[in-house]
Amino acid sequence: AYTIMGSADITICDGKHDSALGNPVEDYAAVPIFRTMCIHGNSLVIANFPDEPAKIMVSMSGLSGTYKEVDYFYVPTTHGGEVTAVVSHAGMLLAFTDRAIFNCTDNTKPPITLAVGIGCSGPKTLHARMDGSIVWQAGDGSFYSLLPGQLVPQLISSGIYLHLNEELNLSMLRNAVAAPDGQQLLFAVPTAGSPVNDMVLALGNNRQWARFNYGLSVWDMCQVDGWPGYTIAVGQQGGNTMSWVLRREVRTYTPPARTVMFVSRWLRQHPLMLAEFKPRHLYIGCYDRWDASTATIKFYKNFESTPGDTQNLKMVGKGFGELTNAPVAA
Length: 330
Hints:
The protein is 2% helix and 34% strand. By secondary structure, it is mainly β. It has a five-stranded antiparallel sheet, with no helix packed on it. A four-stranded antiparallel sheet has the order 4-5-6-8, with no helix packed on it. The protein has a four-stranded antiparallel sheet with strand order 9-10-11-12, with no helix packed on it. A hairpin with a 5-residue loop joins β13 (127-128) and β14. The chain is elongated.
């Protein structure tokens, strides 16, 4: 039936039987504004909408912009009412809040809770590694990993827990970003008191961590597909918006002041510096392509936060130095 302006309702016959018209038109939902997404199977999964932060919608297979009104579900709001990330992993659709992980593979049933107390700080810290695992940063600054076939996340940052707990701005971890770089995975995170990502943490294959201070404010990072697979970061330096190719330095470029800090487990005797440490020979190795590289050694006495002595040593390859008059306790 149709309504023509200025007249009553009339019926226009199309000359075809109803059975020849196909299935009735289904009700489709408009695509709302969303904050996180992923590809699962052949569908586009979107989540966290302005008015419904716990809602997740799954598109029709092969039609990433088409959503049925009935293809949606909610994660429980008892463990954080906002979906911070979604990911397709080992055939499962996982949804994260800031304090829980849910298995949402079967969207016709309620989500299954996999972990409580372990969430994801933001979608851009969630990345897959070459061993098939996924790695992400939790809201307390710690990093977790989940291998294919596992249902319980594994803590992989226990060795640097004190640094993460004391030196990160936990309130701004939502803006942290990550990207692969060769065999490593780089995380740009905000330090304590900083609203921007001004420190880069590197995770190696054997769960070894390194920290880099490039003097940059990193907004986002990504890896270029194909060879040579450069890792590109975009952000700000000195008030100027710039982009950089990380870990690919040239001699025509003058980098800003940078600090690389590494804490060795055998060198750090006690987290509170209560154990006396008397070094007779101290060897420090660093791979560096720049000339005249030096290592700064700081000695602290027990219960003191100010170094009692500071010495600079030239790196092996361009000469070497020796410790002189080192304090008894360091």
